[in-house]
Amino acid sequence: MALFPLVSNVEEDFVLQLLPVDTENTMDEVAAAAAYHSVGRRVAARPGKILRVRRQGSEELLPRDLRVSESGLLPMECIEVVWEAPHAGA
Amino acid sequence: MATLGRLDWYEIARTTNWTPKYVKEDELFPPEMAGSMGLPLTAWEAYDEPYKQTYPEYVKVQREKDAGAYSVKAALERSKMFENADPGWLSVMKVHYGAIARGEYSASTAEARMARFGKAPGMRNMATLGMMDEIRHGQIQLYFPHEHCSKDRQFDWAHKAYDTNEWGMIAARHMFDDIMVTRSAVGVALMLTFAFETGFTNMQFLGLAADAAEAGDWTFSNLISSIQTDESRHAQIGGPLVSLLVANGKKEEAEKLVYIAIWRAWKLFSVLTGPIMDYYTPLEHRKQSFKEFMQEWIVTQFERALLDLGLDKPWYWDNMIAEIDTQHHGMHLGVWFWRPTVWWNPAAGVSTEERAWLEEKYPGWNESWGKCWDVITENLIEGKRELTYPETLPLVCNMCQLPINTTPGPAWKVRDFPLNHKGRTYHFCSEGCKWCFEEEPERYEGHLSLVDRFLAGMIQPMNLGGALQYMSLAPGEIGDDAHNYAWVDKIIAERFKKAG
Questions:
Q1: pTM of the model
Q2: ipTM score here?
Q3: Among B55, B248, B376, B390, fewest CB within 10 Å belongs to which?
Q4: CA nearest A11 in B: which residue?
Q5: Cβ B412–A13 below 8 Å, yes or no?
């Protein structure tokens, strides 16, 4: 367990933000942490949809239960947190 | 006694280059201070300044001009302008004075570098007057806001801001230090006088003077119009230098420095000038939109100046023109959302009528920036103000030091432009800022952005309180909504009326 800083870029928000997470967090937990700073503050919630994590520039969503420590993400790497209908590729 | 006309003696008196016998030319004009690009002293004598003025003329004109500005101030001191001004307008003044006043002193050292190390006699003469201009501008822009300090502590930041680690100030200092404090005489002439003062200060001072006059703030309007007449004189130091460098085969070297400075100036203006023109200045007093000012003063006039002097348009010109539509909206939203971290009270500027104006001036605003403001507005209407404050830091760019942001909403385009350099990852907001870094990495690689400092544990405690303390923002100084959220009450009233 260790503090791990990421940069979060939530879909439809306007700014990149510092996102401190833990190496043991799953991608779902990372998405929730990112949402805390954007959704309901500057980005409208989307009932029925969930947020998924991908690396900047990649279309491939990281598995929801993948832990930060297993993900290959680097400290301060920019992650995109994007909306997805829960059935698609969940 | 009859005296000769200026033109009868000016050129003879100006010819102050000589052949040094006791020291080498490079000792008299060290290349790192002169920035002479290997050109000999004789090449510099072709420099011919377009605006010729002598010291006695300077003193006479400036004395009269300053007396005019001071007397307008004295006459209007009891006018209750402060009490009657729209709070958005007071914020315009606070931003301007804090970001600019002390920077003028820095600018005077830059002018002094040209006055001492410029190899062209005409440049030295103009820069001597320019140096005095900047000292006067520093003094006058500290004296004028001082009368407001007793009524509003944020005005104290006219003097205080430059010494702090407030994030906007780090950005302003990083840019001004880069283009004027740490460059050679030639570097200053190209970056400060030609790139920055020709276009950007014109817009700041003339644009704001127009808005100030509309807002009835004659003191401020008179002050900054007066300053601009000096700027437009000493800004002409750069033009003949560009011609000289092009004629001596140094076009690419000149372009590089000019391009870096224009890009950096653009970024700073997107946070300082864009929001005050399009959001803080009361709607009825807006002369033109920021975009219109930018198109007139920077795109059209500056482009012509570049081409006329034999330089090409910068590679990023189209990117910059595209950003004129978008960048300052995000800067404004960021400043407002992180409002406890600035020394002024940002005016939201998003009432129903203001949004209609924004949509007219920037088609698509409602579908992008408006989407974020919709969420903020609903939170305020529902009494959830806590959701309109930040609980983390924005990532700032390692060049412009400003939050990395761009278009939100369905056309979401936000992204990081990272660069790995000597094992450290730097984050940039754009190809332009990344390019500036890559051109001269050794200049910038050691600097820590506010976020880098936070991660290095230099800001303690690691929360908003610690950050405010680090930025020297004391209670009574931290920013909040300029109109105390009255615009939200207006929207609620409109909704009631509509609902019947």
A1: 0.95
A2: 0.96
A3: B55
A4: B412
A5: yes
